[in-house]
Each structure stands twice: as structure tokens, then as C-alpha cells.
Write a structure and sequence with these properties.
This protein is α/β, with parallel strands linked by helices. The chain contains seven helices and five strands; from the N terminus they run H-H-H-H-H-E-E-E-H-E-H-E. A five-stranded mixed beta sheet has the order 3-2-1-4-5.
Length: 235
């Protein structure tokens, strides 16, 4: 009735809804209940936590943050207040493209790392992966090469496709910037065209011709490519 008071007379709305005008005005001027006041105060704290998280926290993480601050509130109550306040957290459910598609026809590469991602110096172990970035124009795919020792990105490439050029461009940037002597490149068992066969040390003569030709002289003798025995996820 309050929301439609500018469009319809109160007496008419009261008659249609079966309530009294006196009852409506009594409700309108009634002080908020203690529960409503407490909900309003809690919602303000929820808004602060949600804003501090850059609008990524949902009800479970807001609930955990309040508990860490010594406040005890039900998760359902927090979820209700966030819903009423229009607060939504970031969802990590899969809703985008799959960037790891194992090629069942390709020869699996040996795992030269064996889950040991430590390195005692730069340009000894590089770790690579592909992820996607949603944009208004669709998905963009990002390939990165990270130095396990310094944790720095040494090569990257972005494109609107998942073809082998995406991976090779990132690798080419890394090699061009670092010029490594003997580095192991570790990735999952995704299939990006001919790159899935680049699985051995090139100086041993086991690198496929497609990938060797893509890099030319800067490739030979610089890098060994390794992938684990099972495909991984996006980075």
C-alpha cells in the first residue's frame, strides 16, 4: 500500500486488501521491531565485508568472516539479508569453455617434474597453463609461462582461440626474453594442435618438426617439454 499510495487512494487499497485504514496508519508509524533493527545493523556489516572482498564473497564466506570477528549469526540469516540487499558473491562454478582437452591419439609425455615444483635458480623449471577471460565480446584465452623459481611470468599470449599459436607465442616470448640454457617446461595434457607432441628435449632429436619449425633456431637445444600423466585444470 505504501508503495502504491501515489497511484491509488488508501481507502480503496484498504477495501480491496481487506484491511482497515487505521490498521495501515498504525503500521506505517510503528517503530521498527528489535529484530528489524538488528537485521539492519547486521546488513550494514555484511555490506562492508562484501565491499572489502571486492564483491566476491557470498554468504558462506561472509558468515566465516563474521565468525572470525567473534560474531555468531546463522548462515541462512546472512543469506536472506544478502538476498534482500541485492548482494551476490562471485561464482566459481564452471560456466565457460574447457581449456584442457586431452588428445587421446597423442603420445603422453613423460613427467619430468613429478609434482616437485621447486627450483634452485632461474630458468630451470617453467610452468605453463591456459585460462579464459570473459569479456563483453566473448571469451579471450590467456596462455602464460611462469618461472617456478622467481614466480614471475616470463611469457604470455592472448587470443580469441585455443589453437597451437596461442601456446607457441607465449613460449616464444619466454625464450626470447630469457634465452635459457636447459629448462624444463611443464604443462598439463591439453591438446593445442601439433604442440601436444613437443614432449622431449629438442636436443635429443625427439621434438616434432612442427613445433621446431615454429621456433626455428631459438628453439633448438634450449628447452625440454614435460606434461604430467593426467590432464589438469585451468590456471
Amino acid at each position: 500500500m505504501s508503495a502504491n499510495q501515489a497511484s491509488f487512494p488508501v481507502a480503496t487499497m484498504a477495501r480491496v486488501l481487506g484491511v482497515s485504514k487505521a490498521g495501515y496508519y498504525a503500521w506505517l508509524h510503528r517503530s521498527p521491531s528489535a529484530h528489524a533493527v538488528a537485521d539492519n545493523a547486521l546488513l550494514k556489516r555484511i555490506r562492508t565485508i562484501h565491499a572489502t572482498s571486492r564483491q566476491t564473497y557470498g554468504a558462506p564466506r561472509v558468515h566465516a568472516e563474521l565468525r572470525a570477528q567473534g560474531e555468531q549469526h546463522g548462515r541462512k540469516r546472512i543469506a536472506r539479508l544478502m538476498r534482500e540487499g541485492g548482494l551476490v558473491g562471485a561464482s566459481h562454478r564452471r560456466g565457460g569453455p574447457v581449456t584442457t582437452q586431452r588428445d587421446k591419439e597423442a603420445r603422453p609425455a613423460p613427467d619430468l617434474v613429478d609434482r616437485d615444483f621447486t627450483a634452485v635458480g632461474p630458468n630451470q623449471l617453467w610452468v605453463a597453463d591456459i585460462t579464459y577471460v570473459p569479456t563483453m565480446a566473448g571469451f579471450l584465452y590467456l596462455a602464460v609461462v611462469l618461472d617456478a623459481w622467481s614466480r614471475k611470468i616470463v611469457g604470455w599470449s592472448m587470443a580469441n582461440h585455443l589453437r597451437a599459436e596461442l601456446v607457441l607465442d607465449a613460449m616464444e616470448m619466454a625464450i626470447g626474453q630469457r634465452r635459457p640454457g636447459n629448462v624444463v617446461h611443464h604443462s598439463d595434457q591439453g591438446s593445442q594442435g601439433g604442440f601436444t607432441w613437443s614432449s622431449q628435449h629438442p636436443d635429443a632429436g625427439d621434438c616434432d618438426g612442427w613445433s621446431r619449425a615454429a621456433f626455428g633456431p631459438i628453439w633448438a637445444g634450449t628447452i625440454g617439454v614435460a606434461r604430467p600423466s593426467a590432464g589438469g585444470g585451468t590456471g
